[in-house]
Every structure is written in structure tokens, then in C-alpha cells.
């Protein structure tokens, strides 16, 4: 689903965004006062600008991959839905051109889902970006309590897109900043950063952003913002879907990693469930911890299922988020992972603020308790291979040596 996406240097924003980076386990609330809150450390800069700079080489034959037929059918349907975008948009990874996808997309239009394994073997080859070492987390479609009108206890506003927030395309000012933008607002004739999370929650944008609902659950809403879309259950049981409409341009900080650095959590405790447990157990510190993530997401009501960055619905256990600088959006991806749930064939249909760099993925698990459990504890490592149109690796200058792993 389309989720908050941010950048680091010069507060650069890559339009559209993230997630918690879970590491398994759960937090405890043993005796002793919570440690003090310190400012969040700056995010490290990326090493490579795109996949071509990171290096690309041929991976194993698609025929050697143990593709599950049912999984392949779902992946084919997702790929088919992505083709309209694949065949017209510019690939910022540098790996492909829009025309490269046309043969596979033409074949996908009539390929039966029950013959999907043969389809992928016929039209694709694998490519390893950089060392191929993957790290995959998970996201899902959460549900929180809410009301369309403020009532007793329902006092946390769910904001729509503000009318005073502007976006500047940096590529119009410097060619090397093409594809990057920043967001802010105009004060005294100057573009200044837009208010951060703590300022917004303190009332800094009242009168400038529509309120599309209210929730009593500040912590639940915080994590819904991280996921980027979700369900709001009304007091009468009606469920309203909301999705990503925009983001304030401030940098994203994964509070799980930050809490580990502060000693609030121990290694193995920074799963989503562990973080939520800690925040509920330490209400006096919860707000200060959440404020470390200065990013704030604005929402809109959805009439249908959640949409990814390609503008097509994301599918649980099929769609994943990737960094478009290293993975063409719409491309199939094979994960050879140490977590059985994450292993197999996926399709890159979304992006995320914390999903940056080569072989960094965020797997989507749909809605419900099972999805929340898997996504919240997902932390998979292994090897990743992109499935690209046949002939791509040779065109990029591959020496013809298979990775063999």
C-alpha cells in the first residue's frame, strides 16, 4: 500500500513511503525506571545511487528455483496488474527500459494462472544486485478504533492533506537532483520545513488540514501511519478504509532501532509487538519515544483495497515494497530467505520510507491477526534475485558467470 517514503540527505523526499524494522521477540517491562530519551542519531547515507552502480550479475536459472505453482499464479496476476505501469514508466534502477517489459507483459495478458511457473521460466532470467544479501521485514493492514466525529475518548485527529504544504521538485533546480523533492510551507516568502510529528500533534496545523476522523488509540494510530494505510472501525461496527495521502517531508526514524540504542529494549525484543508492549507499559515515556519519528502521514478515505506505489492493489503474501533505485517497480523478486514465510516469489508493487538500498524488502501480509503476527515479527535474511526480462543481464555487460547460490 502506498506508504510514507522519505530520504536523508538535505531532507530530500522520495515521493510516496515505511515500516518498523522488526527483529523478533517481544519487549518486557521488568523493574526499574525507563532510561532517559536522547535525540535520534542521523540516518547513514546510501553507498550507491542505483542498482547499476551497485553491480549486477547473472543469478541461477529460473528453472532451478523451487517455485510453488499456487504462489506463481498469484504472482502472475500481480505482475499482470503491474504491466500498465512497467511498460510506460522510467526505471530509476537503471536496469531496464519500459520496452524491455513489453514481450512478457503481452504474454501475461493471456497466460493462464495455472501455467504461471512455465510463464516465469519462459520470459525471465534472474539478476543479483550487489552481493545479493537480502534483509526483509513485513507490513500489514492494521485496524484501529475510530469515529468520524469527536466523541468522549476519541480525541486523536486523523488528518487529511494540509492546504499549506507545498512540494518542490529539486530536479528543476539541479540536474543531479532529478527525481527528488522536498516538502515544506511558505513563511515570510521562504520555503521552510513543514512541522514535525510533535509540532503537528501540538496543534501546529489546525485549520490547515481536514480531519477525516478521530481515534482513541494514539499508539495504534502511530503504527497505522507506519504501515501507510489501514482500517478504522466505527462505534457502530462499520469499517472505513484509509490510505496514504501525503507526508510532512520530515525524516523517518524507526523507533525500534532507536529504542535498542537507548537500552529501552534488548536484542531480540524489537518486534512490532515488543515495541507496542513497551509503549503501553511506559505511558509516561511513550509520546517522547514516538516523537523520535518526526515523519507524519496524512490520509484519505479509500473506496477499495489498499493501493501500492504503482497505483494497483497490493496483495497479501504476494506484494512487497522495495527501493525503486535498486528494484524496478512491478518486477518479480525471488527471496531465498531463512524464514519460510518470506521465501519464494513476490512482486515489487510498493515502496517504503525505511526500505532503502539494494536487496532491502518489506513483505506485505494483508489484514487480520495472523498478518499482524507475521509482519510484526518478520526479520528474514538470505539472498535475493530480481526476475528481469530475458536478455537484460547480457545487455548490462554481464560476463556470463552464474552466481551459483
Features:
four-stranded mixed beta sheet; alpha+beta; 405 residues; 25% strand; Ribosomal Protein L25, Chain P
Give an overview of the whole structure.
The strands form 4 sheets. The chain has a 6-stranded mixed barrel. A 4-stranded mixed β-sheet has the order 4-10-11-12. The chain has a 3-stranded antiparallel β-sheet with strand order 6-7-8, with no helix packed on it. 22% of the residues lie in helices and 25% in strands. It has helices at residues 51-54, 69-86, 102-108, 116-123, 197-201, 218-227, 255-262, 272-281, 283-290, 369-377, 392-395; strands at residues 56-58, 124-129, 133-141, 143-145, 156-159, 166-169, 181-187, 190-193, 211-215, 229-233, 239-247, 297-302, 319-322, 332-337, 344-350, 360-367, 380-389. With 405 residues, it is an alpha+beta fold. The protein has one domain (9-395): Barwin-like endoglucanases (Ribosomal Protein L25, Chain P, Beta Barrel), CATH 2.40.240.
CATH class: Mainly Beta
How do the strands line up in the largest sheet?
Answer: 3-16-13-15-14-17
Question: What's the order of the H and E elements?
Answer: HEHHHEEEEEEEHEHEEHHHEEEEEHEH
The end-to-end distance, rounded to whole angstroms, is 31 Å
Report the helical percentage. 10-25%
Q: Compute the average pLDDT.
A: 87
From the alpha-carbon coordinates, what is the Rg to the nearest angstrom?
Answer: 21 Å
Helical element count?
11
| CATH topology (fold) name | Ribosomal Protein L25, Chain P
Kindly give the count of domains.
1
Number of E-state strands: 17
CATH architecture: Beta Barrel
Any low-confidence stretches, pLDDT <50, length ≥5? Answer: 4-46, 399-405
Q: What class, by secondary structure content?
A: alpha+beta
Q: What share of residues are in beta strands?
A: 15-25%
User: CATH superfamily, called what?
Assistant: Barwin-like endoglucanases
- Main beta sheet, described? 6 strands, mixed, barrel
Overall, the morphology is globular
Amino acid at each position: 500500500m502506498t506508504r510514507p517514503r522519505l530520504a536523508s540527505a538535505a531532507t530530500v523526499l522520495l515521493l510516496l513511503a515505511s515500516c518498523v524494522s522488526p527483529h523478533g521477540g517481544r519487549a518486557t517491562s521488568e523493574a526499574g525506571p525507563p532510561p532517559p530519551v536522547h535525540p535520534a542519531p542521523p540516518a547513514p547515507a546510501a553507498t550507491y545511487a542505483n542498482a547499476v552502480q551497485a553491480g549486477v550479475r547473472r543469478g541461477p536459472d529460473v528453472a532451478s528455483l523451487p517455485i510453488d505453482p499456487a504462489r506463481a499464479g498469484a504472482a502472475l496476476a500481480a505482475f499482470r496488474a503491474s504491466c500498465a505501469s512497467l511498460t510506460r514508466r522510467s526505471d530509476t534502477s537503471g536496469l531496464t527500459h519500459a520496452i524491455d517489459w513489453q514481450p512478457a507483459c503481452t504474454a501475461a495478458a493471456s497466460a493462464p494462472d495455472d501455467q504461471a511457473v512455465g510463464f516465469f521460466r519462459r520470459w525471465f532470467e534472474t539478476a543479483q544486485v550487489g552481493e545479493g544479501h537480502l534483509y526483509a521485514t513485513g507490513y500489514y493492514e492494521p485496524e484501529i478504533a475510530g469515529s468520524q466525529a469527536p466523541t468522549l475518548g476519541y480525541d486523536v485527529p486523523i488528518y487529511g492533506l494540509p492546504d499549506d504544504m507545498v512540494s518542490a521538485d529539486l530536479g528543476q533546480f539541479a540536474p543531479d537532483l532529478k527525481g527528488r523533492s522536498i516538502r515544506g510551507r511558505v513563511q515570510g516568502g521562504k520555503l521552510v520545513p513543514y512541522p514535525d510529528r510533535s509540532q503537528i500533534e501540538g496543534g501546529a496545523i489546525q485549520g490547515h488540514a481536514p480531519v477525516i476522523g478521530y481515534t482513541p488509540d494514539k499508539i495504534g494510530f502511530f503504527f497505522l501511519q507506519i504501515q501507510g494505510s489501514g482500517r478504522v472501525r466505527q462505534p457502530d461496527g462499520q469499517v472505513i478504509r484509509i490510505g496514504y495521502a501525503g507526508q510532512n517531508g520530515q525524516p523517518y526514524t524507526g523507533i525500534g532501532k532507536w529504542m535498542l540504542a537507548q537500552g529501552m529494549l534488548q536484542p531480540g525484543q524489537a518486534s512490532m509487538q515488543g515495541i507496542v508492549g513497551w509503549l503501553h507499559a511506559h505511558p509516561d515515556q511513550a509520546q517522547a519515544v514516538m516523537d523520535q519519528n518526526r515523519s507524519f502521514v496524512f490520509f484519505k478515505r479509500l473506496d477499495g483495497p489498499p493501493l501500492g506505489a504503482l497505483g494497483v492493489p497490493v496483495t497479501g503474501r504476494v506484494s512487497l515494497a522495495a527501493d525503486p533505485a535498486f528494484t524496478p517497480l512491478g518486477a518479480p523478486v525471488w527471496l531465498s530467505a531463512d524464514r519460510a514465510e518470506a521465501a519464494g516469489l513476490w512482486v515489487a508493487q510498493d515502496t517504503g520510507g525505511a526500505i532503502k538500498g539494494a536487496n532491502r524488502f518489506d513483505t506485505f501480509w494483508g489484514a487480520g491477526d495472523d498478518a499482524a503476527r507475521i509482519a510484526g515479527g518478520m526479520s528474514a535474511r538470505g539472498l535475493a534475485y530480481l526476475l528481469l526480462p530475458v536478455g537484460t543481464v547480457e545487455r548490462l555487460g554481464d560476463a556470463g558467470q552464474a552466481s551459483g547460490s
